[in-house]
Amino acid sequence: MAVHQAVVGRRPRFERQLPQARRAALIAATIECLKRYGHAGLSIRTISAQAGVSVGLINHHFPNKDELVAAAYRHFNGELVEGLRAAVAGAGAAPHERLRAFLEASFSPPNLDADVLAVWVVFWGLYRHSRPIQRVQRATYSGYVRLVRGLLAELVQEARLTPGRVELRLAAIGLTSLIDGLWLEWCLEPGKFRPREAVSLCEQWVASLCGQGGGWNSR
Amino acid sequence: MAVHQAVVGRRPRFERQLPQARRAALIAATIECLKRYGHAGLSIRTISAQAGVSVGLINHHFPNKDELVAAAYRHFNGELVEGLRAAVAGAGAAPHERLRAFLEASFSPPNLDADVLAVWVVFWGLYRHSRPIQRVQRATYSGYVRLVRGLLAELVQEARLTPGRVELRLAAIGLTSLIDGLWLEWCLEPGKFRPREAVSLCEQWVASLCGQGGGWNSR
DNA sequence: ACCGTTATTGTACGATCGTTCAACAACAAA
DNA sequence: TTTGTTGTTGAACGATCGTACAATAACGGT
């Protein structure tokens, strides 16, 4: 019949998706908007346009904007840690090889990207005044620290240092700080140094920690 | 007369100030709002309320909000570099003493303050998408880098290392990255380490650079 | 083919945003 | 005391913000 034809011929105006799939899409859109527009991209309308949905849908899947942003932060953190962990797992068994894989993954795409780092900075800027983001930070950052500390612990054991005298805690803090600082600096001025040099700086730092410290000239 | 009394008795509704003084007050109010409310504090109404002036005044002294924020960033940068420079100038003549003064000033008030660091992070988050802030960054960051590089150059000279083989550029990048990273990490989780430990980490890094590297256990 | 569930839409609302501008008034100079 | 300059006010504008909500329609189950 004619009516039947009309119904069959018309494409659906939208596609229903499972909540978990739609949530994932909205989170991806949020991160994409952050990359493109920075903090200004964190608006309901910008994000929903990026995701190709209407303005009302976000509040159907998330209680409010802050929770969406926090979920995006959680996903962003998770992707980073998972990627680094995979890089380490794909490397050889020697501790220094595993550390090198970790550092090279840290300072190469997709992590070392000006847009990606700018996203981190925006998240950090939100941290102090957003409870949801603070909760995510506490829940996810420990995974990153555990990964770094594990790599350092392997190195210390290999170098046959007395574990007690080596301040593993401080070493992990220093290495993560150096990495974060290099990320930040490369983000602000990408021309100042090359990723390869960042890896080198980190390796020298770790070498000096282990007392193999050949010093600045030895490389 | 009554009229005369009335005129004399009434306090002025506002006080005219020289443009440079008012601009300075608006810049100070901007930074204060950033400390208190983060990125959300960067609104014309919040800032003008903090400064105790009307909403219209900002656009009389600054062409637009971005320029005010950029001016605040310039002032913030200048204060930091000036403070660090003064700390170095007040120290002894020995290069390692001067470096220590620099590091201790870096990791003590007013620089090492959770609010202050949060302000930095917000500025960094604006960097990618704000031309005025990019201009300020290029103009002022070199002063900071020059200061760090000068301190390192003194140390290298004292250690009698062949200047050519020492990569002063990379050393400065590494040290500033380490400092920035430690700032950032302390800002996100102030309880994880003490400022004293941050100074120690930086000094060990520099020592390893100069080939005096006693390693991680030597302290 | 119909129904029920619910993902999705899009308008509407009140709040707040940055900026403009005519009117006002503080203060120095005449 | 009067005048001129200009720093300052505050209402008004249009745009955009986050959220609420009734209406709509996609799609699996019967």
Name some characteristics of this structure.
homodimer; 219 residues; mainly alpha; 10 helices; 70% helix; 0% strand; elongated; disordered N terminus; DNA-binding
Rg for CA atoms of chain A = 22 Å
Number of strands of chain A: 0
* C-alpha end-to-end distance of chain A: 82 Å
Quote the beta fraction of chain A: under 5%
Question: What is the ordering of alpha helices and beta strands of chain A?
Answer: HHHHHHHHHH
Say what oligomer this is: homodimer
Q: Find the biggest chain interface.
A: A-B, 57 and 57 residues
Number of helical segments with 4 or more residues of chain A: 10
Structural class of chain A: mainly alpha
Instruction: Round the mean pLDDT of chain A to the nearest integer and report it.
Output: 89
Shape of chain A: elongated
Please outline the major beta sheet of chain A: none
| Helix residue percentage of chain A | over 70%
Unreliable stretches of chain A (pLDDT < 50, length at least 5) are: 1-7, 213-219
